[in-house]
Amino acid sequence: MRITLIAGSNQQAATSTRLTEYIQHLVQSHGHQATLIDLNKTPIPFYSPDDAHGGHEALENLKLAMHEADGIVLATPEYHSGISGVLKNALDHLGQDHFNNKAVLSVSSSGGAVAVSSLTQLQTIVRNLHGINCPEWISIGGDQRKSFQTGVAYSDIHPDVDKRVRRVLNAFLDLTTVLKVRQ
């Protein structure tokens, strides 16, 4: 299977991006292809209905990866009870043809306890794009974020956090498999 992961932070050392990199690692360890789009490293232009930005390399790569994906992981920090602006901008460039009947896992990292507002917002966007939300999501907050700080080895991720990430990822991969068979 092909999984596209979008790390939707504009911060170099974002824990949401590091968590997404770990999920990519786990997807690959299951024998699947995983394409990570890091919006901090490969920014895309501001969305405008008046300009399709044809030929913009990062945007074309994003659209291609989304078309080829069997499943999608969307990761964001939580800013003021919502998703990041760079992720919202990327999603505005995409349409139903990128999400239609594909499994989508929502992931968030928040400085507070949980990132429920951003995750709920992501799931609403996914429904509008005709994606299929994974019934579970990954939310890390507070001290849990220490497991995904720069320089922390995957082997040093807190065991409870690692167990939860793996459990939710397995549910997402199972859903992706079922939906891929139906297409």
Please describe what this structure looks like.
- With 183 residues, this protein is α/β, with parallel strands linked by helices.
- The protein has helices spanning 15-29, 57-68, 85-92, 96-99, 116-128, 159-182; strands at residues 2-7, 33-38, 71-77, 103-110, 132-133, 138-141.
- The longest helix is centred in the C-terminal third of the chain and has 24 residues, at 159-182.
- The chain has one domain: Rossmann fold.
- Helix content is 42%, strand content 18%.
Key terms for this structure?
Rossmann fold, alpha/beta, 183 residues, 6 helices, globular
What is this structure, in a nutshell?
It is an enzyme of class 1 (oxidoreductase). With 183 residues, the chain is α/β, with parallel strands linked by helices. Helix content is 42%, strand content 18%.
> What is the radius of gyration computed over CA atoms, rounded to a whole number of angstroms?
15 Å
Order of helices and strands: EHEHEHHEHEEH
The CATH homologous superfamily name equals Flavodoxin domain
Largest sheet data: 6 strands, parallel
The percentage helix is 40-55%
Q: How much β-strand is present in the residues?
A: 15-25%
- The mean pLDDT is 93
Task: List low-pLDDT spans.
Answer: none
Secondary structure tally: strands? 6
Number of discrete helical segments: 6
The CATH topology label is: Rossmann fold
Output the CATH class name.
Alpha Beta
Using the alpha-carbon principal axes, give the shape.
Answer: globular
Name of the CATH architecture: 3-Layer(aba) Sandwich
EC number: 1.-.-.-
GO molecular function, one term: oxidoreductase activity
Keywords: Oxidoreductase
Pfam families: FMN_red (PF03358)
